Amino acid sequence: MTKTKKSEFRPDDFVVYPAHGVGKIMSIEEQEIAGLKLELFVISFEKDKMTLRVPTHKATEVGMRSLSSPDIVTKALETLKGKAKVKRAMWSRRAQEYEQKINSGDLLAIAEVVRDLHRSDDQREQSYSERQLYEAALERLTREVAAVSGTDETHAAQTVGDVLISRAAA
């Protein structure tokens, strides 16, 4: 069996897995599954107390990617400053779109969800499902901002929060 090109992902790298957000590659292991030898990334999502094993040859196919560049993080934070774009579609349709954006793993799309669902204190109440989507998007955004900037989540949450507050004040 010839080894395919070495993957761009290595143990100790932080990666973004679309459906789960930021995780850390703990190791690369070989397992025999149904008689086939598979090389797998072992990815830990510490916050969710979850470990995922992803076949190395499928990583890019499933949308796994390296952390965003600082430029993308800056763009995502700029996105938060924009005016919320809320379509007139029914909530179920919008909720589906928001969920797709969150699970796309695309930081800019996630930032759009945070922007569109953010409510300042004086705005109308959010429904339970709006709140759930908002918090999921906010958590994904915050975790990646933290990982890219090398700070902890509390600091990253403060950064994101400050941007959202400054937008509300504008």
Task: Give an overview in words.
- The chain starts with 13 loop residues before the first strand and ends with a helix.
- The chain is built from 5 helices and 5 strands; from the N terminus they run E-E-E-E-E-H-H-H-H-H.
- It has 170 residues and is an alpha+beta fold.
- The chain has a 5-stranded antiparallel beta sheet with strand order 4-3-2-1-5.
Query: What structural category arises from helix and sheet content?
Result: alpha+beta
SSE arrangement, N to C: EEEEEHHHHH
Question: How helical, in percent, are the residues?
Answer: 40-55%
Strand order of the largest sheet: 4-3-2-1-5
From the alpha carbons, calculate the radius of gyration and give it in angstroms: 18 Å
Average of per-residue pLDDT values: 90
Taken as a percent bin, the fraction of beta residues is 15-25%
Low-confidence stretches: 1-5
The number of helical runs is 5
- Please tell me what the overall shape is: elongated
Biggest sheet layout: 5 strands, antiparallel
How many E strands? 5
Could you give the distance between the termini?
Answer: 60 Å
Protein traits:
five-stranded antiparallel β-sheet, alpha+beta, 45% helix, elongated, 21% strand, single chain
Give the helices and strands, then pairings.
Blueprint: E1 14-17, E2 21-33, E3 36-45, E4 50-55, E5 65-66, H1 70-81, H2 91-104, H3 107-117, H4 128-149, H5 153-169
Antiparallel strand pairs: 1-2, 1-5, 2-3, 3-4
